[in-house]
């Protein structure tokens, strides 16, 4: 299956470099390029993109606003956004994930890592660098969301096992790591994660991370019970 990729960056040279890189992978195809956020939203729809590589700083509509527009559009429910920027700082990470992005990487990422990142978010998993995860946990997700409070009762739809697994997802563990921790098969761990996402109406693992901290299921600095 070919993954259709949209490049959204206002710098032609950067788009050109990513186009060559993405095009070198046999299972990836660059279907369009956008130079601002508004174009990114329009092209994501018209070109049926699977993944948008989205820069944060763009004219007219920035990458975060464009991400929110994409994730709020039911017609684009299958589109995943991978944020690429030179500004891998906590504020941007937090805003990008809350906007609905499935991943966040610095533009200095190694070619092989970028290719793998596209594949990861295309299949519905979250992709956050360790630095990004630390930023989310340590500084921002403990803060309440003004005007949009999320209470712990949101999690009542989950089974005990699903709650436990969502907590581990929030710590950045992969399905394989969760399986090892809980003595499950990786496929069983993945099934629990997917069921939790459906029940909580989360697009992907990144939004599970946000919700786990907003509801107090996991708290910064408090380790999960082994």
From TrEMBL:
The keyword Transcription regulation applies. GO terms for molecular function: DNA binding. Residues 4-122 form the Response regulatory domain. Pfam families: GerE (PF00196), Response_reg (PF00072). GO terms for biological process: phosphorelay signal transduction system; regulation of DNA-templated transcription. Signal peptide: none annotated. InterPro entries: CheY-like_superfamily, NreC/VraR/RcsB-like_REC, Sig_transdc_resp-reg_C-effctor, Sig_transdc_resp-reg_receiver, Tscrpt_reg_LuxR_C, WalR-like. PROSITE patterns: HTH_LUXR_2 (PS50043), RESPONSE_REGULATORY (PS50110). Residues 151-216 form the HTH luxR-type domain. Keywords: DNA-binding, Phosphoprotein, Transcription, Transcription regulation. The modification 4-aspartylphosphate is found at residue 55. This is Response regulator transcription factor.
